[in-house]
């Protein structure tokens, strides 16, 4: 772990991790600043009030500790982490850099949002032994592995036990992982080949089979001719039936017309008798209902009318605790969001608990935690930022939300209730 203050800052050009400059390691510093090595964060040396700082560009990336809080870690990720560390050690050695400069603290290891590539940072003058930092990293990842996966837990503890040996080598652990992966790949290939061999072989056609096909074809042709003859007879019969149906339709139409005329005449005769009755009914309906009259006596108390009073409630005391609702305030067809669990991720990813389908939203844009009926928001180093009441929320800063706060994820605005 680095023994200097680490500051996370964000400006118009991106997000940065700032660490004070070390003294007495000019060669490692020159190599770090001049060469853009693969797998490392871009870094620049800047001065603030005469004090030098290394500015590591972490835009579009999440630190490992943040990534482990929003994602489930499996053994594949742990193995990929070990292989990436070994590859980076080889790159540092090829460029004559001290491998102990590699930072393995979960807050200084980053994962890209786009393709989950693991990116590291180097710090000239870092004196912590790499083997010790690797052991602490494996101990940290053991607590983040999905313990429902028994195979992942078994392999993870086996790797951690190897780091307890004082003479262990990270490269040896990497070689065992690669060998185990090749064994799994060969086992899958063998299983696939056995499945193909167990399939039913393709039958070969001989002359007898072809002869049977020719006979069946001739039988089909003769049957088809008979079918076409029957089809012609059916067409003539169908035309005769249609002519008979046409006559019947005309007959029923005439009967229907006569019935309608008779029904109309009957209704006119009956209507003359019903009109007086209908008017009487209407008059009865219009007559007001008689109400019981109330008689007051001198000795009876006069009832007092109860006046309902609705006191005005102060807006600040109306909601003691927020309800956890993000009400959309915009012109696009976006829905309101409700925080229904203790921790929710907000973003464009399909597995995000609160999904916002918009191009300006990052895959995992922000995170909201609920604790004791209070809500806390944290930006996940999103590309376009998270704003609270038009104030940019810095990376790794957790802020408590209050009722009627305006939250803006990039250009999507919500009101927190």
From TrEMBL:
Comp. bias intervals (Basic and acidic residues): 270-286
Any Pfam family: DUF6382
Protein name: FHA domain-containing protein
Residues covered by region (Disordered): 270-299
Record InterPro entries: Cell_Proc_Reg/RNA_Proc, DUF6382, FHA_dom, SMAD_FHA_dom_sf
Domain of life: Bacteria
Residue span(s) of domain FHA: 344-393
Species the sequence originates in: Roseburia porci
């Amino acid at each position: 772990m680095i023994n200097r203050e680490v500051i996370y800052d964000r400006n118009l050009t991106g997000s940065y991790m700032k660490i004070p400059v070390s003294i007495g390691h000019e060669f490692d510093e020159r190599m770090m600043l001049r060469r853009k090595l693969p797998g490392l964060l871009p870094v620049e040396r800047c001065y603030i009030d005469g004090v030098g700082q290394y500015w590591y560009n972490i835009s579009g990336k999440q630190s490992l500790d943040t990534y482990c809080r929003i994602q489930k870690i499996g053994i594949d990720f742990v193995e990929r982490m070990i292989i990436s560390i070994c590859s980076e050690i080889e790159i540092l050695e090829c460029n004559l850099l001290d491998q102990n400069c590699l930072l393995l603290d979960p807050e200084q290891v980053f994962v890209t949002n786009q393709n989950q590539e693991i990116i590291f940072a180097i710090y000239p003058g870092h004196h912590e032994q790499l083997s010790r930092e690797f052991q602490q990293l494996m101990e940290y990842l053991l607590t983040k592995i999905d313990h429902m996966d028994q195979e992942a837990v078994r392999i993870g503890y086996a790797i951690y036990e190897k780091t307890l040996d004082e003479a262990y080598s990270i490269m040896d652990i990497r070689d065992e992982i690669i060998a185990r992966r090749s064994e799994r790949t060969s086992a899958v290939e063998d299983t696939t080949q056995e499945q193909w061999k167990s399939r039913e072989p393709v039958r070969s056609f001989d002359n007898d089979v072809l002869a049977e096909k020719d006979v069946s074809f001739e039988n089909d042709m003769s049957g088809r001719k008979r079918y076409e003859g029957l089809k012609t007879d059916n067409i003539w019969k169908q035309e005769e039936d249609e002519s008979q149906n046409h006559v019947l339709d005309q007959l029923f139409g005439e009967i229907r017309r006569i019935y309608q005329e008779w029904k109309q005449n009957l209704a006119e005769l009956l209507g003359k008798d019903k009109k007086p009755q209908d008017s009487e009914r209407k008059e009865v309906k219009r007559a007001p209902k008689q109400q019981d009259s109330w008689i007051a006596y001198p000795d009876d108390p006069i009832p007092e009318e109860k006046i309902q009073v609705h006191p005005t409630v102060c807006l600040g005391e109306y909601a003691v605790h927020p309800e956890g609702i993000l009400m959309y305030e915009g012109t696009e067809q976006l829905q309101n969001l409700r925080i229904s669990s203790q921790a929710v991720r907000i973003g464009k990813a399909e597995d995000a608990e609160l999904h916002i389908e918009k191009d300006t939203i990052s895959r995992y844009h922000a995170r909201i935690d609920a604790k004791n009926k209070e809500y806390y928001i944290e930006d996940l180093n999103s590309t376009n930022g998270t704003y609270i009441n038009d104030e940019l929320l810095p990376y790794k800063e957790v802020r408590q939300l209050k009722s009627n706060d305006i939250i803006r994820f990039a250009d999507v605005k919500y009101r927190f209730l």
